[in-house]
């Protein structure tokens, strides 16, 4: 709209009048929100987690361009939100997520004598499959997924991936 305003003002368009336009300073919050694809997330999380194994975030990274020794091209990370204690499992393919989740769950049970309460991950098909969801539910663990195309919602896990990659 600003370009059109300049063209009329500079006489580049003959016979055109702009009537009823809002002043430049006009800010329409609803218009701005309607143009956003994803609502911005707060810079600081409002969720405070103090208990170990209360919330665990998980993410899968890969594939690498060159396989590691043993043919590993992916890893899955599990991070306890309260302590930021992180466990990585290397995988040859994404289909191994269920096995790695079982290993992590047993590891936490041995380490802290507690079960996982909530696991948070993105909407990837490697997570949203019947065997993994059945395993999570069978132990009384709840799960949360992020909104589609909003990796910032799983920011803790995404930052971990960036830290490891650097």
Please characterize this protein's 3D structure.
It contains 5 helices and 5 strands. The chain has about 170 residues and is of the alpha/beta class. It has 2 domains: about 35 residues, no CATH class; about 110 residues, Nucleotidyltransferase, domain 5 (2-Layer Sandwich). It has a 5-stranded mixed beta sheet, sandwiched between helices. The longest helix has 16 residues. It is elongated, with a radius of gyration of 24 Å.
Summed up, what is this model?
The chain has helices spanning 2-9, 29-35, 97-112, 130-138, 155-165, and strands at 55-61, 74-80, 86-91, 118-121, 142-145.
Largest sheet: 5 strands, mixed
Point out poorly predicted stretches.
none
Helix share, percent: 25-40%
Mean pLDDT, as a whole number? 84
Report the CATH topology name of the largest domain: Nucleotidyltransferase, domain 5
CATH architecture of the largest domain: 2-Layer Sandwich
**Amount of beta strand:** 15-25%
**Total number of strands:** 5
The CATH C-level class name of the largest domain: Alpha Beta
Tally of contiguous helical segments: 5
Report the radius of gyration as a whole number of Å.
24 Å
What's the domain count?
Answer: 2
User: In one word, what is the shape?
Assistant: elongated
What is the rounded distance between the termini? 42 Å
Give the SSE string. Answer: HHEEEHEHEH
- Going by CATH, the homologous superfamily of the largest domain would be Ribonuclease H-like superfamily/Ribonuclease H
The order of strands across the largest sheet is 3-2-1-4-5
Structural class: alpha/beta
